[in-house]
Specification:
The protein has 19 helices and ten strands. The chain is an alpha/beta fold.
Length: 338
């Protein structure tokens, strides 16, 4: 029950951990290094509660990703594929037309086990129909034991680090603007904290201090898991999804055990799903235009440009050079490339 669940990770334990974990600064906020990865200070408890309470079911389908690598897109595609027998993509009552993708595929540490929502907890896992569609930004090594050992399946998405960084910059700036929306407060804070620049984000990335990062360790962790257990972990790339969504959607459907039939293919079902989940269509929906997720994040901030290569407009040649060197160094011998 809820009371017992809360006791397992006490405030005291969290405070003690917060004191002894390595600390760093990410664009004005404190982050802590736990099990080799960085988390916002106030997020640590959620991570612990998720690790200790979640029990995966063999039928669960869990999206793994770093923020800004295409999580929202993958949520909509997965939901559409899994629920296509009940709701075709052109069905006027398709839940994707009435709900933001984050409201249909809950994030485990951010929604389900968020300490801010314990009473009342908004999303009861037991009420979800099977297969449960869930997501997490945790690295593979930190996943609850039951995710790694049960029959549940993981769909990981990654993206070119430079585009991810550009996306993270715009998303974070938007969140900060909302957070400090009062003009006077903004003015006072502005005296102490100059507006972060892309260069600040870039340096944080290169120094391996971004929330849920280091970026490459995160991706390589899931990459290796996919090489070892291809039936357990599907590895997707944002760029490949953009380049050939049909092929990638077929891979996804097969992986979750719901391959498209030849009848569905000739009926254009794949194309309908791709079209419904395209950024152009998603952006137009009223439900994605206004309102917030988790009290802080504008629903529309999850849909920006949705393009490959936006980094070319933001990175200087020395930045690109540095990133390429970093990428070569971190990915050497892994077989993973961007
Ligand atoms: P940009 O900021 O580069 O536009 P996440 O969902 O992991 O937070 O990632 C957000 C990024 O995915 C944003 O990238 C966003 O625009 C893009 N995105 C969201 N929905 C998309 C879709 N349906 N198709 C392609 N990209 C999408």
């Amino acid at each position: 029950n809820q009371k017992q669940e809360e006791i397992i990770v006490s405030e005291k334990e969290v405070q003690q951990l917060q004191q002894c974990l390595p600390k760093a600064n990410f664009i004005g906020s404190k982050i802590l290094k736990y099990q080799g990865y960085w988390y916002h200070d106030n997020h640590l408890q959620n991570v612990l509660v998720f690790q200790r309470h979640f029990h995966a079911q063999d039928t669960d389908l869990i999206i793994g990703s770093l923020p800004k690598t295409g999580t929202t897109w993958l949520k909509s595609l997965l939901f559409a594929v899994v629920n296509r027998a009940n709701y075709s993509a052109n069905h006027h009552q398709n839940p994707l037309l009435e709900n933001h993708p984050h409201e249909l595929v809950y994030s485990l540490e951010t929604d389900v086990y968020n300490k801010a929502f314990v009473y009342p907890r908004p999303h009861h896992l037991n009420e979800l129909s099977s297969p449960r569609l869930l997501s997490t930004h945790l690295p593979y090594v930190s996943l609850p034991e039951s995710i790694r050992t049960s029959g549940c399946r993981i769909l990981y998405i990654t993206r070119n680090p430079m585009d991810t960084l550009v996306s993270l910059y715009y998303f974070s700036m938007k969140v900060m603007k909302n957070y400090f929306s009062m003009d006077i407060l903004k003015m006072i804070l502005g005296m102490f904290y100059p507006t972060p620049t892309m260069q600040d984000f870039f340096e944080a990335f290169c120094e391996d201090r971004i929330p849920f990062g280091p970026f490459f360790d995160h991706a390589v962790g899931y990459w290796k898991a996919c090489l070892e257990q291809p039936d357990k972990v599907l590895f997707l790339k944002y760029e490949e999804l953009k380049d050939d969504p049909t092929v990638q959607l077929k891979r996804l459907a097969e992986f979750v055990g719901m391959p498209f039939t030849s009848q569905e293919e000739s009926d254009g079902v794949i194309q309908q799903i791709i079209e419904m989940c395209s950024i152009k269509s998603m952006k137009k929906l009223e439900v994605n235009k206004s309102g917030v997720i988790n009290k802080l994040f504008d629903k529309n901030s999850y849909f920006r440009k949705g393009e490959v290569g936006d980094w070319t407009h933001h990175f200087t040649p020395p930045m690109v050079e540095k990133m390429k060197r970093l990428m070569d160094e971190k990915l050497e011998g892994t077989g993973l490339s961007y």
